[in-house]
Write a structure and sequence with these properties.
This protein is mostly beta strands. The protein has five domains: 9-202, Jelly Rolls (Sandwich); 210-285, Immunoglobulins (Immunoglobulin-like, Sandwich); 287-565, Glycosidases (TIM Barrel, Alpha-Beta Barrel); 569-669, Immunoglobulins (Immunoglobulin-like, Sandwich); 686-950, Beta-galactosidase, Chain A, domain 5 (Distorted Sandwich). Strand 28 (358-362), helix 3 (386-400) and strand 29 (406-410) form a beta-alpha-beta unit. It is globular. Beta-D-galactopyranose binds at residues 87, 185-186, 341, 413-414, 454, 484, 487, 515, 544, 547, 927. InterPro entries: B-gal_small/dom_5, Bact_Beta-galactosidase, Beta-gal/glucu_dom_sf, Gal_mutarotase_sf_dom, Galactose-bd-like_sf, GH, GH-type_carb-bd, Glyco_hydro_2.
């Protein structure tokens, strides 16, 4: 018996690999045949890279007793081993280029036949679109080579090896390799063949590689097309009457491509051997006057960082999931994507071209873990690694160069600085001068065409906008973007509107990209969605991997709804003096002709009349004051608002007619303050005090019921289950209020009873609310009066001692024995907090208690509704003076605080209701600034009232 122990030296080799074809454009031929090799593959997992010899690659090998896995996929999500999550720490000792001996290695085997009509002539190429992290490939026993670069394509010439039937494709995949040092992104480590495997027929005379150059001259309105092709041929674009030879330029009048108006022209590249469909978008990207301009205009990026994610299949995404991402983005007014932190599946870029999104295409490169050793031995500053870096740059640029949506090439993410990055930038600038180069890690902008940062605080962003940030000469000449900001972890991000205001105020600020699109929760039988640590990882970063604007199942979070409102392409501002609304087109390219406008007049939140509003098709940047109709005559008195909406005038590729793009509201008559004339006197007897509809405990002054409705535990509440943003990131220790609050003991406040007093019309209960071991406290007085039917509670709070922290919340909480349906008049329909309330629309809303909950993957404070005038719940009607924040849930704040996963929360018998006078802001301190000072809930004297009655 022969036994060959294969050499696995390539695993730790810093070179890009061997045997693969040079990179080229990714395209689907119209007529050349292809065979998808996706599907079920035989699979064997070994603990080390060299545990098994390579006889499995030989024809005739019997893999009948092997397991099976689905390709594309990750074996750790298919029952073989488990995923590992770290943010920036390498999950193995840092000793480049060495990797651990324990190196899970998956042998994959697939036997396939060629279709009957597979042409006998020509060549063939075997393409892998993504394999993590290192693969060695054999076809019919012949070793084709090996490669690294997980999120990059690799092709092998295989025509000479193919047989009509029984082809044996063997792929050995190692989880860890030298390449892992270059792929230290903040995400799950997920080995496997996770993108498509395809066999492509290459007829004689087929196109190899080609580069579509399609520019737009905004002065003449003409586009110039030239397709450079390795193989000569002709290019036709019938709609433009273009029919030219490859390499030849042609200039014609065109409609340009922009993210707002993604005009594509169908064309064909015809070589002797095949026809390749082209989707041509004419646009020109330049750096001019210190600004990023497309087609002559500065653009404002309203972007998001997108990792590829699916809660079941990980980074193996099907086309429909990719489309869902794009549709969701478009429907939420997002106009740009950074493909953090690697080139996405190529089909995603087709969708960006088609639906219209500006793209920063990022190279698969991150060496963040070297920060732990002050960036010593960082591969990007070590010439031995430069060929691998250049290979990665080339594989990205060559694969994706024909997408009009891509305006920036990004060198990678968080890789420090070094000569290797400079080499990449030089190569890219030379290969594709028609786009700009991005990289955040180099604040001196040595290699980049934009000054890019992440998580810069508002005040610094403002300084940068004013050009007062200093920096190198080169940097001072460059525009600024935040390639990451507003960390969407858990409840938040707060402060979006404040950032947007800055972006719109200063020309140099060209917008930003929220971190990030989706929570990378993994569907799990016990936890619902698992995060770091749930698979027993020794080293992990917990739920830092769940920081998206959509939940793992792609349901929009309140953060996305807020972002949609903050970045809406039309601003609608009412004039409280009445009569008009100011409409501003905030787009960069499109006029308003694609939108209809509608008005509604609301009294006490109910629409009493509505109609359409005629708005001129304003050009980008233009505003108009549009007259509203006369307010409905003889309408009922009360609080009155105009709500004006901008709606899709017709079905679009991404939304149906009537889809709400933007809205604005203006209050023209204020709400009358609820008034209760104290006329019923409290009466004491039987250990009870009665006052109007209410019953109290005579000894404690605690409310027991209102009308027939039992009430328990009504008292002051200052605690909230700290959010990820309250808890903050570890490097921000002096302002992590979640931590400071807990240290102070705000989660275990004691309520001392100082007196229950009946004086005339009122029942007064005096208390002091304070944490053990501290001298600070809140003197709290509850004053109750009634007019016989309704009950009014006035709470007065006076801080005592030296309060050095804000309060999490300030209000009362109470328990109701049963409640399901909730109706309210105030902000809605979704969650809102002081710095996340832009999208909260005043109206009449209803929900169930369960639907009020926001399903953050790690449970935390959620679900508040803002500006609530009144709420009806559990048989009570509660009206506020002033308006209040309302929250209700079937568990206590303490239970919410203790839960690690949603599955830890079990509904109890009581519905706990919080009526808050104030909430502390949210911020995005889990990786960024905390709430701005104006959203602080300071410990200051406060007084607020609620009028309680039984709901009619
Ligand atoms: C950035 C990084 C992202 C992610 C984010 C925090 O530093 O580029 O990949 O880690 O922080 O969630």
């Amino acid at each position: 018996m022969s036994f060959r122990t294969p050499s696995v030296d390539y695993v730790e080799d810093v070179s890009p690999g061997s045997g693969a074809l040079p990179p080229r454009a990714w395209y689907a031929s119209s007529d050349a045949k292809s065979v998808s090799l996706n599907g079920s593959w035989r699979f064997r997992l070994s603990a080390t890279a060299d545990a098994e010899d390579d006889t499995f690659a030989e024809p005739g090998f019997d893999a009948g007793d092997w397991a099976e896995v689905t390709v594309p996929g990750h074996w750790v999500l298919q029952g073989h081993g488990s995923p590992v999550y770290t943010n920036h720490l390498y999950p193995f000792p840092v000793d480049p280029p060495h990797v651990p001996t324990e190196n899970p290695t998956g042998d994959h085997l697939r036997v396939f036949d060629l279709p009957a009509d597979w042409p006998a002539d020509g060549g063939a190429v075997l393409r892998f679109d993504g394999v993590e992290s290192c693969a060695r490939v054999w076809l019919n026993g012949t070793d084709l080579g090996e490669f690294k670069g997980s999120r990059l394509p690799h092709e092998f010439a295989v025509g000479h090896l193919l047989k009509p039937s029984g082809n044996v494709l063997a792929v050995r995949v190692h989880q860890w390799s030298a390449g892992s040092y270059l792929e230290d992104q903040d995400q799950w480590w997920l080995p496997g063949i996770f993108r498509d495997v395809t066999l492509l027929h290459r007829p004689a005379g087929s196109a190899l590689d080609f580069f579509v150059h399609a520019s737009y001259d905004h002065v003449t309105g003409e586009g110039t097309l030239r397709v450079d092709s390795d193989v000569d041929g002709r290019v036709s674009v019938p709609e433009l009457d273009i029919d030219v030879a490859t390499g030849e330029s042609v200039t014609v009048a065109v409609e340009p491509w922009t993210a707002e108006t993604p005009r594509l022209y169908d064309g064909v590249l015809m070589t002797e051997g095949e026809r390749v469909p082209l989707r041509v978008g004419f646009r020109t990207v330049v750096l001019e006057d210190g600004l990023i301009k497309v087609n002559g205009k500065a653009v404002l990026f309203k972007g998001v960082n997108r990792h590829e994610w699916h809660p079941v299949t990980g980074r193996a995404l099907d086309l429909e999931t990719m489309r869902e991402d794009v549709l969701l983005m478009k429907r939420h007014n997002i106009n740009a994507v950074r493909t953090s932190h690697y080139p996405p599946h190529p089909a995603f870029l087709d969708l960006c071209d088609e639906y219209g999104l500006w793209v920063i295409d990022e190279c698969d490169l991150e060496t963040h873990g070297f920060t732990e050793q002050d960036w010593r031995d960082n591969p990007v500053d070590d010439d031995r690694w430069t060929p691998a870096l250049l290979d990665r740059a080339a594989r990205m640029v060559e694969r994706d160069k024909n997408h009009p949506s891509i305006v920036f090439w990004s060198l990678g993410n968080e890789a420090g600085t070094g000569r290797g990055l400079t080499a990449m930038a030089e190569w890219i600038h030379d290969r594709d001068p028609s786009r700009l180069v991005h990289y955040e890690g180099d604040w001196n902008c040595r290699d980049t065409d934009v000054y890019s940062r992440m998580y810069a605080f508002h005040d610094e962003v403002e300084k940068i906008g004013q050009g007062l940030d200093g920096g190198t000469h080169k940097r001072r000449e460059l525009p600024f973007i935040q390639c990451e900001y507003a960390h969407a972890m858990g409840n938040g991000p707060g402060g979006l509107a404040d950032y947007q205001e800055l972006f719109e105020k200063y020309e140099r600020l060209q917008g930003g990209f929220i971190w990030e699109w989706i929570d990378h929760g993994i569907q799990h039988p016990e936890f619902g969605y698992a995060y770091g640590g749930d698979f027993g990882e020794e080293l992990h970063d917990g739920n830092f991997v769940c920081d998206g604007l959509v939940f793992p199942d792609r349901r929009p979070s309140p953060g996305l709804v807020e972002y949609k409102k903050v970045i809406e392409p039309v601003r609608i501002e009412g004039d409280p003096a009445g009569g008009t609304v100011r409409i501003t087109n905030k787009q960069d390219f499109a006029d308003l002709s694609a939108l209809d406008f509608a008005w509604a007049y609301q009294v006490d939140g109910e629409t009493v009349e509505s109609g359409s509003l005629s708005v001129p098709p304003l050009a980008p940047g233009e505003s108009a004051d549009v007259k509203l109709p006369a307010p409905p005559a003889n309408g009922p008195g009360g609080e009155a608002q105009w709500t004006v909406r901008a709606l899709a005038a017709a079905d679009t590729a991404w939304a149906p007619k009537g889809h709400v793009v933007a809205w604005g509201q203006v209050t023209v008559a204020e709400r009358p303050v609820p008034c209760v004339t104290a006329s019923a006197a409290p009466a004491c007897g039987d250990g009870r005090i009665t006052l109007g509809p209410a019953v109290f405990d005579a000894r404690t002054g605690a409310l027991r019921g209102v009308g027939g409705v039992e009430v328990s535990g009504l008292r002051l509440d200052v605690w909230r289950a700290t959010t990820d943003n309250d808890d903050g990131a570890e490097w921000q220790s002096d302002t992590r209020y979640g931590v400071l609050w807990r240290t102070l003991g705000l989660h275990r406040m004691r309520h001392r009873l100082d007196g229950v007093e009946l004086d005339g019309d009122a029942l007064t209960v005096r208390t002091r609310v304070a944490p053990a071991a501290r001298e600070v406290g809140l003197a709290t007085v509850y004053r109750w009066v009634s007019d016989g039917d309704r009950l009014k509670l006035t709470v007065s709070v006076t801080p005592e001692g030296d309060w050095t922290v804000p309060l999490p919340r300030l209000g009362v909480r109470l328990g109701l024995p049963a409640a399901d349906e909730v109706r309210w008049y105030g902000g809605g329909p979704g969650e809102a907090y002081p710095d996340t309330r832009t999208a909260s629309m005043v109206g009449r809303w209803q929900s169930t208690v369960d639907e009020l909950q926001t399903p953050y993957v790690r449970p935390q404070e959620n679900g508040a509704r803002s500006d609530v005038r009144w709420v009806e719940i559990g048989g009570l009607r509660i009206e506020g003076d002033p308006a209040f924040w309302f929250t209700a849930r079937r568990w206590t704040t303490e239970q919410l605080d203790a839960a690690r996963h949603r599955t830890d929360l079990t509904p109890g018998d009581t519905v706990w209701v919080n009526l808050d006078h104030g909430q502390h802001g949210i911020g995005s301190q889990s990786c960024g600034p905390g709430p701005l000072p104006r959203y602080f809930l300071r410990a200051e004297p406060a007084e607020f009232s609620f009028v309680i009655s039984t709901a009619g």
